[in-house]
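Fold it.
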Amino acid sequence: MKALKFVLVLLGLLTLSSCTIYDNNVEGDADLVYSSTINIRSNDFTYVDDYITMAEYGWDNLDEEMVDFGLVHGYLRFEGTTAWHALPFSVPFENDLVNLRYQFDIGSFNLLLEGEVAGNNQANADLFHNDFLRVIAIPPSAIVRGKGIDYRNYQQVIELYGLNDID
């Protein structure tokens, strides 16, 4: 009987702890969640090597605190669609598999296209011409942590932080 009570108490505690929102104990000046939408153009990309091209977008909201302790996510929406896809994202294209990923640092957000076939750089960049990139940056003071929060889920993120959807 004691073992059963112990198991029930343990399950109750686990259930309560799974709904907890954790404080990250990082002091931040900004409580604002930043968002920027970029219309991707194929000429945004510059040649890095035979497989990779990169588009660099400056963004002042990426300061040292945001880069070191915040959350920065990129989402892609194809032209003529309404669905947003979390990056990194892979798409088959002709005889290639194109990987779209990102990196960021203080003051800049970079979109990288990487193909598996050498020399397809321009064709890969043309594939994303007129698509949309949405970058969402969440400062450390505004990060919500808890079971069931999926930051790759665009809809969940904009609802959680009260952001407007982009038409």
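The first strand starts at residue 34 and ends at 39.
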